[in-house]
Design goal:
Layout: E1 12-14, E2 18-20, E3 30-32, E4 45-52, H1 65-79, E5 86-89, E6 95-98, E7 104-111, H2 129-132, E8 148-154, E9 160-167, H3 173-187, E10 241-247, H4 249-256, H5 261-266, H6 269-285, E11 292-297, E12 299-300, E13 319-320, E14 323-327, H7 328-333, H8 336-347, H9 352-364, E15 375-380, E16 398-401, E17 405-406, E18 409-416, E19 422-430, H10 433-447, H11 451-456
Parallel strand pairs: 7-8, 11-15, 15-18
Antiparallel strand pairs: 1-7, 2-7, 3-6, 4-9, 4-16, 5-6, 8-9, 10-19, 11-14, 12-13, 17-18, 18-19
C-alpha cells in the first residue's frame, strides 16, 4: 500500500524521560574539550535517526528494543563516561566536561503508526520528527544539561525508531558512530567494545602562545557584517522548499565528462558533486554578479597522511570547514569545472597543520562561528558508517541525519534508486518554489536529463549501502 509520508499524522505516547547512568563506577574528573570542539559553530545538538523492521528470524522478535538499548547505553557509558557528565564554561569561553556520572536522557515511547506508513523507504524530512526525538524541556541548553538524549519508539508493526540527539561539541559524526557502535556491540552481548575510546583532546589544542599570523587565510571565519536591509532574510524552516536529488554513477560520469582532462582524472566524487550543486544553487538564488558566494566543505582529518595523525578510537571533532569563495557571476557564467576546481583547491589544504592553525585562531578570537553569509555547507555522511551499525535487529531501513537538508546545509546520504543504482541522495532546501524550479532546470541542463526524471528521484527507495 502506498502512503504519502509528507502528510502522515500519528500519535506518540511517551513515558517520562529517565536518566540512564553508567552501569559501573567511572572517574570523577574535569576534562577539557579541544580548541576544535568548542568553537561556536559546534555548540548545538545534532539529531540522527534509525528505522528498524521487526525481527522475524534473528532471535530478537520478543525482545523489547527499549529495554535492550537502555541497558546497552548504560554499559557503554562506563567506557564513554564523559558523555554522562555536564559541560561547563571556563575563562575565554573554554568548554570542559565535568565528569559527574549523572547520565543521559532516555525516552521510551509507542506510536500508532507502521513502518510502511513512512513510505517504501523513509527519507528526510521525516513527518513527526519532533515526536520521535522529543526535546525534553530544559534539556537543550549548552551548560549543565545532558549531553545525549536517546528515544526508542516502538511501532505498531513491531519495528521501532531509535532517535539520538548529541551535543556536537563532544563528537563529530564519526565519533558518534563509534559510540553507537559500542552500544550496538554491547546490545548484542559483547562484554566490552572492540574499539577502545580515546579522549586525547590535547592533540587539537592551540599552542601555549598562539601566533598572530598564520600561513592559512581561514576565510571561513571572515567577519562579515550583514546589511540591516538583509537581516532576517536567512533561509529558515518556515520559508523553504525541500527536494531530494539522486546522484548515481551515470550522473557523476555526466558531470565529470564536462571537466578538463586533468580535473576529470583528479577530482573526487565529492568535489564533482559539490561544485555542481554550488553552481546550480547560486543560479537558483540569482544574486548580483559581484556578490561573494561561499561553499563550506566539511573535511574530516581522519585517515589523512602525515607525521601527526588522529589516533584510532578518538571520538572528538576532527573536522574542518574550509570555504571556497567565488563571485556569483563567475559561478554562473563559467562551466561547472570552474566550481569543481575552486572546491578542490580549498578542500585539499586541510591537514594537521591546518587544524592546529584553526585551534590557534579559536583561542585568539574567542571561538567564533564560521561565516554563513551567502554560504552553502555540504557534508558527506555516506561513508561515516551509520548504516553499518547492528543493534541486534539487522540492518536499518534508514540510518543517518534526522534532518537531511536544513537551511544552508545538505548531506550526502547513501541511497539506492528504484532501478537499483548505488549513489547518494542529496536533500536541498531553497527559499520558495521559484528558486527550486530554477535549481532543477539548471541541474537538468548539466546532467542532460529530463526535468521529470530528475524530480522523480525524490520518491526513490532508501536502502543500506552494501
Amino acid at each position: 500500500m502506498a502512503f504519502s509520508s509528507a502528510a502522515l499524522k500519528f500519535t506518540v505516547r511517551r513515558q517520562p524521560a529517565v536518566m540512564v547512568a553508567p552501569a559501573g563506577p567511572t572517574p570523577r574528573e574535569l576534562k577539557l574539550l579541544s580548541d576544535i570542539d568548542d568553537q561556536d559553530g559546534l555548540r548545538f545538538h545534532i539529531p540522527v535517526i534509525y528505522f528498524f523492521r521487526r525481527d522475524d528470524g534473528g532471535g530478537r522478535r520478543d525482545d523489547d528494543p527499549a529495554l535492550v538499548l537502555r541497558h546497552a547505553v548504560a554499559a557503554a557509558l562506563v567506557h564513554y563516561y564523559p558523555f554522562a557528565g555536564r559541560l561547563m564554561e571556563l575563562e575565554g569561553r573554554k568548554l570542559a566536561v565535568d565528569c559527574t556520572g549523572e547520565g543521559v536522557l532516555f525516552i521510551e515511547a509507542d506510536a500508532d503508526v507502521r513502518l510502511d506508513h513512512f513510505g517504501d523507504g523513509p527519507q528526510p524530512p521525516f513527518p513527526g520528527l519532533e515526536e520521535l526525538i522529543f526535546d525534553v524541556p530544559g534539556s537543550s541548553a549548552l551548560i549543565g544539561t545532558p549531553l545525549l538524549l536517546l528515544q526508542v519508539t516502538r511501532l505498531a508493526c513491531g519495528g521501532f525508531v531509535f532517535g539520538v540527539r548529541m551535543q556536537h561539541t563532544m563528537a563529530d559524526g564519526a565519533g558518534l558512530v563509534q559510540l553507537l557502535g559500542a552500544v550496538a556491540e554491547l546490545a548484542r552481548g559483547a562484554t566490552t567494545p572492540t574499539v577502545r575510546p580515546v579522549w586525547g583532546r590535547e592533540i587539537l589544542e592551540a599552542g601555549r602562545d598562539p601566533p598572530l599570523l598564520s600561513s592559512f587565510a581561514h576565510r571561513e571565519y571572515d567577519e562579515i557584517e550583514i546589511p540591516a536591509a538583509e537581516k532576517g532574510t536567512t533561509i529558515d524552516d518556515m520559508a523553504v522548499v525541500h527536494h531530494s536529488f539522486f546522484f548515481g554513477p551515470r550522473e557523476v560520469a555526466t558531470i565529470r565528462s564536462q571537466l578538463d582532462p586533468d580535473l576529470r582524472e583528479s577530482a573526487t566524487t565529492f568535489e564533482v558533486l559539490t561544485g555542481c550543486l554550488w553552481k546550480c544553487r547560486t543560479m537558483a538564488l540569482s544574486p548580483s554578479a559581484d556578490e561573494e558566494m561561499r561553499m563550506i566543505c566539511v573535511v574530516n582529518l581522519r585517515g589523512k597522511s602525515g607525521a601527526a595523525k588522529i589516533p584510532c578510537g578518538y571520538y572528538g571533532n576532527a573536522v574542518a570547514y574550509p570555504v571556497a569563495i567565488s563571485k556569483a557571476g563567475d559561478l554562473c557564467t563559467n562551466p561547472v569545472g570552474y566550481a569543481v576546481q575552486v572546491v578542490k583547491k580549498v578542500k585539499r589544504e586541510v591537514d594537521m597543520d591546518y587544524m592546529r592553525s584553526v585551534a590557534n585562531l579559536m583561542v585568539r578570537r574567542r571561538r567564533p562561528h564560521f561565516t554563513v553569509v551567502n554560504a552553502y555547507l555540504v557534508s558527506d555522511v555516506s561513508k561515516v558508517g551509520f548504516w553499518d551499525i547492528d543493534f541486534g535487529w539487522g540492518r536499518p531501513v534508514y540510518a543517518g541525519p534526522a534532518k537531511g537538508g536544513v537551511g544552508i546545509v545538505s548531506f550526502f546520504i547513501p541511497f539506492n534508486n528504484v532501478t537499483g543504482e548505488n549513489g547518494v541522495m542529496v536533500p536541498v532546501c531553497l527559499p520558495g518554489p521559484v528558486a527550486m524550479n530554477k535549481f532543477v532546470e539548471e541541474m537538468s541542463k548539466i546532467l542532460q536529463q529530463d526535468i521529470e526524471r530528475l524530480r522523480s528521484t525524490a520518491a526513490a527507495k532508501h536502502v543500506p549501502r552494501l
